[in-house]
Amino acid sequence: MKILVTGTAGFIGFHLANQLLERGDEVTGLDVINDYYDPNLKYDRLAYAGIPREEVAYGKLVQSQKHSGYRFIRLALEDREGMERLFAEESFDAVVNLAAQAGVRYSLVNPYAYVESNIVGFVNILEGCRHHGVKHLVYASSSSVYGLNEKMPLATSDNVDHPISLYAASKKSNELMAHTYSHLYGLPTTGLRFFTVYGPWGRPDMALFLFAEAIRKGEPIKVFNHGNMIRDFTYIDDIVEGVIRVVDHPPAGNTEWDGQAPDPSTSRAPYKVYNIGNQSPVKLMDFISAIEEQLGREAKKNMLPMQAGDVAATHAEVSDLVADLGYKPATPVREGIRRFIRWYESYFGAASLPLSNSDAQG
């Protein structure tokens, strides 16, 4: 297939693009390369995929020097004219929208960035798909949409009307907007609620990266809610495998959907929402212990109260992912942390251990 993957200078998009290329798909990658975190890491991800930094310029399609089927364009989702032109010229079979303004805590500081990228930008994606014959739109939602929900595990059939950050609200809005386009225009759309993704080439604003960096430097780590947090950490390979299976299986309308008892994860329209999580929640203190074990150092811990916008626990219910696609994430957290630390030490030159190909790919 010819697939547009947005966010390919980002963590998940980088891994997904590489896997799609490995199986023979033609990929156009897109990213705005903003400075939410160090752009050098983003350019290094692109370089790994054969996109030289010096060739990247806004609005220019750059051919990969490593993959004949890969091109990259620096472009903002909210750039309406640029997005219209890209869709008109490229005629994509499928679109995977992973580009977004990320981060729960940053949404408290810069809310407009979330409206521009996650809402205005998503309308441009939907319009491009609608007008140019895209057969399937897959897009990143988030476990953050569950907000104040406390019933565990968190299921896609649950109500998600109580988000506690603008980031979460923007992701919920994506699901609503996608359903509207599925209903009005017959556009098959699938939303994926990711649960705390981690692994090699990960984001430096996420817990694993922050903890590893601080422990390595002998600096204290920030442990929120005094360590009483539980997360369904999901390894990047498992996320990518789930995304690819979803791309290959666009939803059809659910003929058994009942408007008097509506399941929010499906519809009469070609619309579906899945959780992708490890289904094995881990206590934050155990997560930290596993990092300490891999680094061979004990962390200095600064115990802090819960931050605004955070939730105490996440736990994915993935029975529909298993039933529909025969798939369930399964990488144990300790193994995932081991692979991340090997990549981290190699990337920052902190270890002499060679980086295996499997570790490099995540």
Keywords summarizing the entry:
11 helices; single chain; alpha/beta; disordered C terminus; 362 residues; eight-stranded mixed sheet; two-stranded parallel sheet; 14 strands
Quick summary of this structure?
This protein is α/β, with parallel strands linked by helices and 362 residues long. Helices cover 38% and strands 15% of the residues. The protein has an eight-stranded mixed sheet, with helices on both faces. The chain has a two-stranded parallel ribbon with strand order 8-11. Strands 9-14 form a two-stranded parallel ribbon.
Structural overview:
- The protein has eleven helices and 14 strands.
- The protein is an alpha/beta fold and 362 residues long.
- Strands 3-4-2-1-5-6-7-12 form an eight-stranded mixed sheet, sandwiched between helices. A two-stranded parallel ribbon has the order 8-11. A two-stranded parallel sheet has the order 9-14.
- Strand 1, helix 1 and strand 2 form a beta-alpha-beta unit.
- Helix 1 packs across helix 7.
- It is globular and about 55 Å long.
- The C terminus is likely disordered.
Low-confidence stretches: 350-362
Multimeric state of these chains?
single chain
Strand content: 15-25%
Shape: globular
Radius of gyration: 20 Å
Q: With helices defined by DSSP (H or I, 4 residues minimum), what is the helix count?
A: 11
Task: Give average pLDDT, whole number.
Answer: 93
Please provide the count of β strands: 14
Major sheet details:
8 strands, mixed
Distance between the termini: 23 Å
Describe the strand arrangement of the main beta sheet, using strand numbers: 3-4-2-1-5-6-7-12
Give the helix/strand class: alpha/beta
- Share of helix among residues? 25-40%
Q: Helix-strand pattern, N to C? A: EHEHEEHEHEHEEHEEEHEEHEHHH
